Amino acid sequence: MKILALETSAVACSVALCEDEKLLAQFFQNNGLTHSVTLMPMCQAMLDGCGVKLEDVDVIAVAAGPGSFTGLRIGVAAAKGLAWPGDKPCAGVSTLEAMAWTVAHMEGAEICAVMDARRNQVYNARFAAVDGAPVRLTPDRAISLAQLGEELKNSGKPQIIVGDGAGLCYNNLNGCGPEFRMAPPHLRLQTAWGVARAALEQARAGTLTTAQNLAPDYHRLSQAERERLERERTQKRAETAATTK
C-alpha cells in the first residue's frame, strides 16, 4: 500500500511517500517559507524523483490537527485536491500521534508530544512506547503547562518530549519530578513519515475517510472566533443590564 503523506501543522513542512512501513522518500523543509508556496512543488518533485504517479498512490494522508489554523487548512485542502480526482481514501491523522511515532522505538519511557498553543497552553497527548508503537495514555487536548506538569509529576516515569513545543515544555517543567529528555533534533519536529505511519494503522483498522469528509480538527476556537464570542457575550450582558433598569 502506497501512502502519500503531508505535514503542514507548524513552521516545518514535509511530504513523504511510504509503501506500508517502508519509507520510499521524504522531503522536509524548515526555513519559514509559506506552505502554500512550498507544499505542492515538494510533493511533485518527490513523486517525480521516485518515478511514481499520483494514480499509483493508494491513500492520501495529512496531519489534520492540532496545529496552526492556517497550516492545517493548507494541508487538508491539498490532501482533498490530491484525493478527489481519483476518489482515493484519505487519512486525517492526529498531529500529536504522528509525532509520537518518530520516537516510539524508545522503550521504557513515556512520550509527551507537545505543540505551543500560546496563552501558557500546549496541545498535548501522552503515549507509552510499546513494541515500537505509541499506545495512547490521553486524548489530544489543549492543556496548561501547570496542569501538564502536575500530570507528569504524578506519572513518575521518564518522559521523552517531542514536537515543536519540546523546548517550551522542557524549560518550564524540567525538574517537576520525572526524568525529562527532549527527543534528538532530527526526531523532534513533526514529519510526514509519522503521518504516513499513523495513516497505515487507520488503513489496517478500516477507519479511512473520503476526501469529502476530510476536515481539520483544530481542538479549540481561533483567536478571532474567541474575540467574536467575547464581544457577543459583552453585548448580551449590556442588553440584559439595560432591560433590567
Summarize the structure.
By secondary structure, this protein is an alpha/beta fold. It has helices at 35-50, 69-83, 95-101, 145-155, 166-173, 185-188, 192-205, 223-243, and strands at residues 2-7, 13-19, 22-29, 59-65, 90-94, 110-118, 121-130, 133-136, 141-144, 159-162, 180-182. The chain has 2 domains: 2-97 and 191-226, Nucleotidyltransferase, domain 5; 103-188, Nucleotidyltransferase, domain 5 (2-Layer Sandwich), CATH 3.30.420.
Provide tags for this entry.
Nucleotidyltransferase, domain 5; tRNA (Adenosine(37)-N6)-threonylcarbamoyltransferase complex dimerization subunit type 1 TsaB; ATPase_NBD; 2 domains; acyltransferase; five-stranded mixed sheet
What would your notes on this structure say?
This protein has helices at 35-50, 69-83, 95-101, 145-155, 166-173, 185-188, 192-205, 223-243; strands at residues 2-7, 13-19, 22-29, 59-65, 90-94, 110-118, 121-130, 133-136, 141-144, 159-162, 180-182. It has 245 residues and is an alpha/beta fold. The protein has 2 domains: 2-97 and 191-226, 2-Layer Sandwich (Nucleotidyltransferase, domain 5), CATH 3.30.420; 103-188, Nucleotidyltransferase, domain 5 (2-Layer Sandwich). Strands 6, 7, 8, 9, 10 and 11 form a 6-stranded mixed β-sheet that branches. Strands 3-2-1-4-5 form a 5-stranded mixed β-sheet, with helices on both faces. Its EC number is 2.3.1.234.
> Main beta sheet, described?
6 strands, mixed
User: Briefly, what CATH class of the largest domain?
Assistant: Alpha Beta
CATH topology of the largest domain: the name is Nucleotidyltransferase, domain 5
In angstroms, what is the radius of gyration? 20 Å
What is the succession of H and E elements? EEEHEHEHEEEEHEHEHHH
Domains counted in the coordinates: how many? 2
Please give the share of residues in helix: 25-40%
The residue ranges in which pLDDT falls below 50 over 5 or more consecutive positions are: none
CATH superfamily of the largest domain: ATPase, nucleotide binding domain
Number of strands: 11
DSSP summary: helix tally: 8
> Approximately how much beta-strand content do the residues carry?
25-35%
The span between the termini is 69 Å
Shape: globular
Structural class: alpha/beta
Region (Disordered): 225-245
Domain Gcp-like: 34-148
EC number: 2.3.1.234
Keywords: Acyltransferase, Transferase
